[in-house]
Write a structure and sequence with these properties.
Elements lengths: L3 E3 L4 E3 L21 E7 L3 E3 L3 E11 L15 E7 L1 E4 L2 E3 L4 E8 L3 E9 L2 E10 L4 E4 L4 E4 L3 E8 L9 E8 L4 E7 L9 E5 L5 E7 L8 E10 L8 E10 L6 E4 L1 E6 L9 E5 L9 E2 L5 E3 L2 E5 L4 E2 L3
Parallel strand pairs: 4-11, 12-21, 13-22
Antiparallel strand pairs: 1-2, 3-5, 5-9, 6-8, 6-10, 7-9, 10-11, 12-14, 14-19, 15-18, 15-20, 16-19, 17-18, 20-22, 23-26, 24-27, 25-26
Length: 312
């Protein structure tokens, strides 16, 4: 039944809510407060493969008091379900109103353990990280055409729960091949931050980002925008972290450098032409190129791409 009952002569403590009390003598039963299930994890975070102890109690009532005189019956079944991790054991029983399990993190993300005892289910949140330090990275071999703008993303793994309010980083690159155009935080983990960028020294960026609300989630931290002004080269040009830190060093972080590869500016594909009738006859050159359209007799030659010639 699961209630804390108070009769006129004695008190019996059970768990649950005050619903469903009927029958003879119901008016003599006081079901408020009732025993309430609580659960907690020993630590709010673990890394993949790490373990956490989850403890659950049915010893506190809905008034946040711990009444004397007993507890829920020993041997009451309890079940545990893990999110982003595994639990062992998945089921148990209570002893003196207490039970528990061990959580092992398996997948990065916000997870935890849901405990069910006597019809009540409560959860202990646990965030699972890949590693103790946040991983910051730039992809390798980002392709770009020569004389085009290229987007260079900076990635971060899960930041939820790390209390990362901002970061400072210094990044170097070959200024003879890449020119800094700016940064874009739209839709990124840094979208709520303010930025100061110092690019006064060619080939070096110093980025200061700060905000009032901790960043959360994983993915693109911010996008750097460069102009690929170098020559075509089979060897990628490196983009290197010389320093990176959150909140002056806490949480800790690791970095992985990236690179940009400038490839040919040629565009491959089919050449397509079209013709359309003109209202009056106009003479023009037989040679056409991509910079203008030409006509002969009553037709105009339209260019999509490529080079062509019309003959009489």
């Amino acid at each position: 039944m699961g209630l804390q009952l108070r009769s006129r002569s004695r008190r019996h403590r059970l768990s649950g809510t005050a619903n469903g009390i009927t029958g003879a003598g119901a008016a003599n039963v006081d079901a408020d407060p009732w025993l309430r299930l609580t659960t907690s994890a020993a630590t709010p975070t673990v890394i993949v493969g790490g373990t956490d102890v989850v403890s659950s109690l049915l010893t506190t009532n809905s008034d946040n008091n711990t009444p004397g005189g007993g507890f829920i019956w020993n041997g009451t079944p309890a079940t545990f379900v893990g999110t982003n991790g595994a639990v062992a054991p998945p089921s148990s029983t209570t002893t003196s109103g207490a039970t528990g399990t061990i959580f092992t993190g398996t997948v990065p993300g916000v997870g935890g353990v849901a405990t069910t005892v006597d019809g009540q289910t409560v959860s202990a949140p646990i965030t699972v990280y890949n590693a103790a330090c946040a991983a910051i990275s730039i992809p390798l071999n980002i392709p770009t055409l020569r004389n085009q703008q290229v987007t260079v993303p900076i990635y971060s793994d899960l930041l939820t729960g790390r209390n990362a309010l901002g970061y400072v980083t210094t990044i170097t690159y070959d200024s003879s091949k890449l020119g800094y155009n700016g940064l874009d935080s739209t839709g990124t983990l840094s979208s709520g931050l303010s930025f100061t960028v110092d690019n006064s020294m060619p080939g070096t960026l110093q980025i200061f980002a700060f905000g009032a609300v901790p960043m959360s989630g994983s993915g693109v931290m911010v996008n750097l925008l460069f102009q690929a002004n170098g020559t075509i080269d089979a060897v990628p040009t490196p983009i290197t972290f010389t320093s990176y830190s959150f909140n002056e060093g806490n949480p800790c972080s690791t970095t992985t450098d990236g690179s940009v590869k400038i490839i040919s500016g040629d565009i491959s594909g089919s050449v397509t032409f079209c013709t359309k009738r003109r209202k009056r006859r106009t003479e023009c050159s037989h040679e056409c190129n991509r910079h203008f359209a030409c006509c002969y007799d009553q037709y105009e030659l339209c260019w999509i791409t490529g080079r062509g010639e019309i003959t009489r």
